[in-house]
Amino acid sequence: MTLFHLTRLHTAAKVAAFFVITLCLEAGLHAQWPGQGQSQERGEYVLVSGGPALRRWEDLRAPGTQHDRWWGNFIRPARMRIQEIQAKDPNAVITWLVYRKAFVSRSGEDNRSLTELVESVRDKYKVRLLWFDNNTQLINYINNGQNRNRLPIANFEFFGHSNKFCFMFDYSSDIYGASSAWLHEKDLPRIHRGAFTRDAFCKSWGCHTGESMSKAWKKATGVSLWGAVGKTDYSDPGGGVHLSPGGRWTR
């Protein structure tokens, strides 16, 4: 229908047409969240946060190459996503899994209980917080944490370090310059394909996931995983996660 024909519609019809056009424009403005503009089957929102590095290890690195100088790099963006999800759906079922060991270790360096600070986010936003220590616990939650026939996972997001082959739950926490806890793409066949809705939105906000793990995730679970080709950057004081120069999102 042309704009000329629209001008001849009844006033109420023109308002309705404008409302539809506005919705389409708003959907386009949110393209930086791939998949989020699409309608999804209802289900559980699962967010996963890795843990921070120890300062004593990172102090050995040259300036500009250090990781996790701030303990909350992987907490703040998860908290922001909780806010966004709840703004869109106040009744959303949200479960937040956080790698515990790294926060306990870092608490000693920061001279305060970081686990209590994480729990304060849980209390403020009234979400379900589960501490985990290894990939088996995470996989068990994905598979059986809820009755997946009645409440499959509609949204899965990971905030933390990663490389092209795995999510790293810690980095320079136990071992300098290395990870001692991860979910490797070889572990993904342990995830039940029926754990997710058919149109589940899955995304890793870590580095390099889109270079290999995204394909392995799709093969194992049947749903796509958005991941970065290149690095991601958590240094924004506002809490956003950004692609580093030259990076792109893929699934």
Question: Key terms for this structure?
Answer:
alpha/beta, Rossmann fold, 2 domains, five-stranded parallel beta sheet, three-stranded antiparallel beta sheet, globular, disordered N terminus
Largest sheet: 5 strands, parallel
Q: Could you name the CATH topology of the largest domain? A: Rossmann fold
Number of strand segments: 12
Helicity range: 25-40%
* CATH structural architecture of the largest domain: 3-Layer(aba) Sandwich
Distance between the termini: 35 Å
Main CATH class of the largest domain: Alpha Beta
Beta-strand residue percentage:
15-25%
- Could you list the spans in which at least 5 consecutive residues all have pLDDT below 50? 1-39
Number of helices: 8
What is the domain total for the residues? 2
Rg, alpha carbons? 20 Å
**Average pLDDT reading:** 83
Order of helices and strands: HHEHHEHHEHEEEEEHEEEE
- Going across the biggest sheet, name each strand in turn: 3-2-1-4-8
Shape: globular
SS class: alpha/beta
